């Protein structure tokens, strides 16, 4: 109760009633009230209490949790059941009773190269060591295993439609009949796993199938195709290395053949094997003739002291001396003209004398010797390129042969069920949080 009014409750509303006359406070004198107002602070005026209305429907509503649910709560619960609970239950049932067992076969291998060290002796030429950078070849092999070419090879050898056909009602992990190559490639990448270790260069292959024997056979086939590819790449690289060296050998061989043919033509035309040797013989002949000439001149001088100029012996000796001088002159003409001024006049017959033939022969012989040396060098380069090409060959080193499983490792039934549940729960939670975020902002 207040000093100003009384509260009277009538049914649904609250009314304010005035106080009776006898309940009104006694009025104080005006002077007293002014004094009290100066000594004391005025008391705050209390507002009139609002009218309180009571809804009959709310008063009659049930007090259980179902009665407090709103439409949004029903929508959230329904979404949880449809988005989270139902997919999780269906996935668990599928993994437990429908999904077929899968077996895997694993193998480990790497691409190696044979590098030859610089040997100190001839026996060391055959020492070989593994090494070299083979990362590029490993990446090529990694892409090849996951490529359409490998899928086509496996399909031709085993038949993907039959090997990976659905088992029972398990159509999720199986592949249908007559699928295009793109679908087969996508399915193949799901059934294989290739991991490459950059540090050691080792590649790990894992092939899954519905039987352990099929997984092992497919893994062995993949290794065989990979080894074939590595050999092809190694042979191609070897041929590229040898191609340039072989081209140089063919050019040198053709040059040597032309030089020998030119020398043979010269010998046929000059009718002498070596003009240098012929010049030596001609020199010896001239020397012999000059010796005879000197001897005859000596005898002529001796005869003139005893005989006259017209004696037959003196005339014979003079005739012999003239013949020898003429012969010596002819032999000397074979060596050259004997005068530099005559070179222009003898240009047309430059190679008719011994000097011209020797010059031509020496030019041809120099070309032949150079061609022989170039040919020998080209052969040495070819042999060196062949040794280096053989030393840099790539090969596939298999450390672990394809294994044969005894227990099924796939599919991961419990893990897949948990992942589906967590994924659906995450999606449902994001939607609910987004709804409440929008609702709070509005």
Number of helices: 12
Largest sheet: 5 strands, antiparallel
Secondary structure class reads alpha+beta
Give unreliable regions as ranges: 1-24, 54-62, 117-132, 340-350
Round the mean pLDDT to the nearest integer and report it: 76
Number of strands: 7
Give the CA-CA distance, first to last residue.
42 Å
Fraction of residues in H or I helices:
55-70%
Order of helices and strands: EEHHHEEHHHHEEHHHHEH
- Radius of gyration in whole Å, from Cα? 59 Å
Tell me what portion of residues adopts beta-strand conformation.
Answer: 5-15%
Dominant shape = elongated
Short précis:
The protein has twelve helices and seven strands.
What do you see in this structure?
This protein has 442 residues and is of the alpha+beta class. It contains 12 helices and 7 strands. The strands form 2 sheets. Strands 3, 4, 5, 6 and 7 form a 5-stranded antiparallel beta sheet that branches. Helix 3 runs antiparallel to helix 12 (413-441) and helix 9 runs antiparallel to helix 11.
Task: Write a concise keyword list for the protein shown above.
single chain; 442 residues; alpha+beta; 5-stranded antiparallel β-sheet; two-stranded antiparallel sheet; 12 helices; 11% strand; disordered N terminus
Layout of secondary structure:
Elements: E1 5-10, E2 13-18, H1 30-39, H2 56-60, H3 71-97, E3 103-116, E4 128-131, H4 135-145, H5 148-157, H6 160-163, H7 181-191, E5 192-196, E6 202-209, H8 212-270, H9 275-304, H10 312-333, H11 354-391, E7 394-400, H12 413-441
Antiparallel strand pairs: 1-2, 3-4, 3-6, 3-7, 5-6
